[in-house]
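Here is one chain, start to finish.
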Amino acid sequence: MNRIVSGIILTGPATIQQAEEWKMKGSLLKKQKWAVGSALLIALCVASALVVTAFTRSSHAVVGHINGDSVSAEWFRMQLQQEAAGTFQYFHEQYGAEDSAEFWNRAHGGEVPIEHARRAAKRNLVAVMVQLQLAKAHGLLDDIRYETFEQELKEENERRREALATGKIIYGPTEYAEPDFFNYRFSNLVIRLKEKLRESDFRMSDEELRRMYEFDKRSFSFMNKRVVRVSVPTGEDGAKAAIEEARNRALEEENGEASADAYRSPLKAEEFLFDNRAGRADYAATGVSREVANPLTQGQVSGIYKENGFYCFLKVVELFQAEFPDFESRVDAMKQEHTEQEYARRVDRLVREAKTEWNPEALKRMKIR
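Its structure:
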């Protein structure tokens, strides 16, 4: 007969004393399990805290060095994120890859997207860092660490929030995202750096300017073009048929005999002189037409194209050699051209000569979000 003692079912000849012993052992076991469970819980909490602390402390972990300057994980991550679109486009066009959860780690033709992106990020980061180092060497920057950039971003966004709160006008976004702020600051820094180098390392003597001017003058072959542009509003009834008929007539005309007077409403004909002195306003008004006119020679007629809400075509009615600008008017342009060329050469050389060290394990942990 089974007996129940303090919740324990006794089967067989067990005594009440044995039952009480088992009860005590069970109670002790429960206490031991609770103690172990509590210890595990405490350990997990401590471990979680350590993980969070470690993550916080490693947010500026070093993944490499460029010419002795450390490259933080955040610098690399920001550059890696900017490679995402270009990498996807490359694999989509090259291998027909589509976006998916496995895209970044799936091999295509022996190439893995995330590895491709990391290599591109390394190349571009070297180019960025050598320019930051060059700017620092010329007194335009005091510090090129990520932490300094991060603080500047925080202060700029705070300034914008305060300006908005007090009704002040701000230009640009209400709050900068990290890559946008970096690109904005970096592009302005490069402009200032080029200006400084233009008057120092890249400064041209009068003799060098004269030589450059004479070389440019000898190789100058810009031809001015007087063209007739025929157009009709795209919304006009029968617009496409009218412009096609007018173009067919222009093709039949003798070389160069077309004039603006040869076309009637709803067609509009205008004469333009496309030369080498076009300003920004000229390009805003006739930018597409200038591009269309570039390959045309005397008497040729362009195809039909759209510009500013009109169907258009061009006919070149006169072609003549452009006059080369005088020396004084070319000085600033020559200095700028020389600076751009020398700056590109300098950066290219600095990239080639850069001493780089990378932490492969740290780079493997860098993902594209």
